[in-house]
Amino acid sequence: MRVPDTVNGVLEELTRGFGAPRLTVELLPSSTWGSNLRSALRVSHWDKLRRGAYAAANYRCEICGGVGHQYRVACHERWEFDDAQSCQRLVGLIALCPACHDVKHFGRANENGRGPDATLHLCEVNDWSIGDANRYLELHFALWKLRTRKEWCLDLTWLAQFGIVPKARDHSSSSTSTRGG
Ligand SMILES: [Zn+2]
Question: What predicted TM-score, i.e. pTM, was given to this entire model?
Fold first, then answer.
């Protein structure tokens, strides 16, 4: 099946084919330093935020209700993408079980050999066939490639309500990842 070659085209195809699925994939453009909040914040600030998210979710996954074996839930950053302005905006945090978290960062999970499990979990939560999941992933990787061509700004003003200011940018640790989240 054809994959559109513009961001809007891919987004339209995703909406047309899949609507608003319960569990989504979120591949972050490569240029967004600090989109891993853990590395952009003081440890004490990150701990305060993530523990608040776990407690608010009653230590269960906010998408599928499950929990992990080694750890129950992880804290995941929710982003909105303004493609016209090339700005990636933090809009909140969510507690996720390891299986849902792997789906969000499918590229990383796949690199670590967990792609097949993540695909199955995506199917299970959304009630999709493997074919549905593969098409959905194909479109998301196309979207990631298109977004990664641009330099993105990062808007972390969501943190201000907690009195939290990110650390100054450290160029030595800036990410050059190409794995698509
Ligand atoms: Zn889950």
Answer: 0.89
